Amino acid sequence: MSNSRKGINFTFMIFMLAANLRLAITGLPPLVSTIQSSLKLSNGQMGILTTIPLLCFAGLSILVSKMIDRIGTSMTLKIALLLLAVANILRVYTTWSLFAGTILVGAAISMLNVLMPTLIVEWHPEQSAKLNGIYTSSLSLLSAVAGAIAVPIANSLGWQFTIQLFSIPAIIAFVCWLFVGQNPNQQSNESKRAEFGQQRPKHWKKPEIWMLAGFMGMQSFVFYTLVAWVPSVLTANGISTSTAGILFGVFQLTGVPFAYFVPRAAESRGKLVMVMTLLLAGYLSGIGILTFGGSNVILQIIACAIIGITTSASFSLSLTMISVISDTPQDAGAIGGLVQAIGYLLASVGPTLIGILEGVFNGWTVTMLILMATAVVTVMLGFAMIRSVRHRIS
Length: 394
Hints:
The protein is mainly α. The protein is globular. The protein has 17 helices and no strands. It has 2 domains: 10-198, MFS general substrate transporter like domains (Growth Hormone, Chain: A), CATH 1.20.1250; 205-392, MFS general substrate transporter like domains (Growth Hormone, Chain: A, Up-down Bundle).
C-alpha cells in the first residue's frame, strides 16, 4: 500500500516529526558552559535545566493520551509543533525565559513522543516495522548531528540564535502536516474510536503493558545515564577531553542503522529472542570494555560503538512494541503514554543516582558494574515482555 495520498509522503512526514524529538534537548548540552557564563547560572541550575525535559516526559505522557482522545491526533500534533517552535524562539533571552521555555519544550516533545506510535497505527499499521525504523533511526541520527553542529554554529552566530534555529524543523513539520493528504484508514479509525469510547479497555490490567513499561524504563535509565557520564568515564580512564568528545560521537552515531532494522524483529518471537540475547551481550561487553579498557583508544572506540548499537536497538525495540500490543490508535496513545511516563521517570533518576554512587565509591569501576547489573535486569524484563506478547506474534 502506498503511504502517499495526494499530498506529502507520510514516510517523509515521520522523518520530519522525528527531527523534532531530541533536537531541542541534545543541542543544549554542548552549549552548557556558554549558556552558564552568559546568564550567570550555577551548576545546580544547569543540572535542573537538563533534567526538566525528562521530568516533563514522565509527568505529562499519560495526560497526552487523554488530550488525543479529546481533540484528535491532528490537532494535538499542530499544537505540539507550534508550541515547540515558539518555545525555542522565546527561551533564550533571560534566565526566567530559559527555564519557562525549556518546560514548554518538554511539554511539546512529550506530546510528540506519544503521538508518533499513535500516528503510525492510525495511518499505516501494516507498515509499522518500516515506519518505526525510520522514526527511531532518524531521531538518533539527527540527535547526533545536533550535538555536533551546535558549538560551531554558536561560535559563529551566538548560542541564542543557535537555539532559535531549532524552531525551523518544527515549523517545516507543521507546514508539511497541512499537506500530508487524507488518512487512508479514516473511516475504520472513526468506527474504532466510537467502539473504544463505549468500552474503554483497562490497560493497567494487561501484563504485557507492564512488562513493556518496565523494559522501556530500565533501558531509558541505562541510556540516559550513559549519555550523561560516558565522557567522564573516558577522561577518568586517561582519555583526553577532545578524544572523549569524538568517542561520544561514535556512541551516538553507530546505533543509527540498527535503530532502523531492529523493529523488523517484532515480526516473530524467534527474532525477538535473538535480538534480546544480542542486547545482553552488547550491554555486558560494551559497559565492561568502557570500564576496564583504560586509555586504549581502540578498545574504547569498540566500547562506544557497542553501547551505541545496544542502546539504540533497545530504544527502537521498546517503541516498536507499543505498536505491536496496540489494537487501535487509541490503544497506542494510552499505552504509549503509560509506558513512556514510567520510562522517562526512571530515566530522570538515572544520571543523578549514578553520579551520587560515583562519589560514594570514589570512582567509576564499582559504579559501572552496578550499571551493568541494571542492564542485565533490563534484558530480563525484555525476555518477560516477549513471553507476555507471545499470543500477538508468530
